[in-house]
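During the reporting period the student researcher (J.K.) took over the structure-prediction task from the postdoctoral fellow and processed the backlog of single-chain submissions. One of the processed entries is reproduced below for the supervisory committee.
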Amino acid sequence: MIALRSIASRFTWIGLNTITGILAARALQPQGRGELAAMILWPTLVGGLTAFGLPKALIYHVRRDPKQASALAGSAALLCFLATIIGTAIAWHVIPLWLRRQPEHTIFVAQLCLLVVPIHALSMLGRSAWEASGHFGRSNLSQLIPPSLVVVGLGVQTWYGVLTPVSAAATYVLAGVPPFVWMLVSVARDYRPTLRGVTHMWRRLLHYGGRSYGADLAGILAHYLDQALVVGLLSSASMGIYVVALSLANVVAAVNQSVSMIVFPRAVGLEPREMARKVAQSARMGSMAGCAIGITVLTAGPLLLRVLYGSAFAAAAQILPILVFRIIIGGFGNMLRQGFLAAGRPGIVTGIQVAGISLTVPLLLVLVPRFGLVGAALTLLTVAITRLGLTLACYRWILRVPMPRLWINGTDLAVLARYRAEIVSSVLRPRTAAGVK
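J.K. obtained the following structure tokens:
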């Protein structure tokens, strides 16, 4: 049931982000939407790059050594804060070089958005602290608050006709402050963070985090590198169309992201074969739901683009099928890679992700100038297929367990039927109880 609630929360999150995307796209049109993307991309990108694997390391060590949770939380928070300050200073000087094709005000606002990088990185760490102690509900809710505030902010500005790329960017980056304050108070109360033995804790965190950082770094780059490169290679209008296509395709990723969030902490400590079996089964279940959602998106996608976003974004339909297929393939591989993290082998994930990045950059630089948006979408699909192949092979070559099964069989259908029965039972039970009264 935790997985189902997380999936429902993820769909709500995607729904809210879809609404914000619609509001911004219709009011700003492709040119303004592209400028907005160029402004707000950097806090998430830089925050993820400077996290040094600490969110995953905190989950891993707290689950294995709960008695040291206070020291681990305090040490991780301090290290994360220091790293983000350094990363922000570097990014401040890099942004003008990369966005030189953008207007000066876009570059300056993008730099100002960097001021929330520490909040973004510490929020990721706070959610990991909650998830390590089993508070998935808090983690899910904290991710729903920012897009809810953005919907309200953009809606009010649209109503009064004052929405601009700059005001929209301010709304996006400031929406993360309220949930961060709540998270800070909650984690401080639950964990009572200390800096006791901070040097030793930093060594423990970085021993795992340093190995998983490669995976996190590659994961962040895999998610945002294409946008960072496209924004420097294409016009703002093309960037606006690309972002809208990604937003609609990402609806398919809701199930995969929710399952991945739960699989990792639940699989830590399991025997390798049992871990591989459970992770693979979860991946197949998530992919079944993802395929069903993908078919729906592809069927209704062209109509939704015209009705919701406007005719100016109709060109996004040509790359939508490629992006949906890429998300299904990539989501399955990502769920399987949680098994390597749970087994204490984050270096495997790092290697797989780095291999993907080494393929992403040259393909984007070659295909985007030649084929535009289609070239960017084909690059993402090629990289997703490559990563999935490497992931399957590493189960056999490195973990020495059978390669995860890709296809659905009778056992999987039986598990799916059991989940369905549990859902129906949970819905009917309160009514039955009320009838007994």
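The committee noted the following: The CA atoms of residues 26 and 310 lie 6 Å apart.
J.K. will present the remaining backlog at the next meeting.
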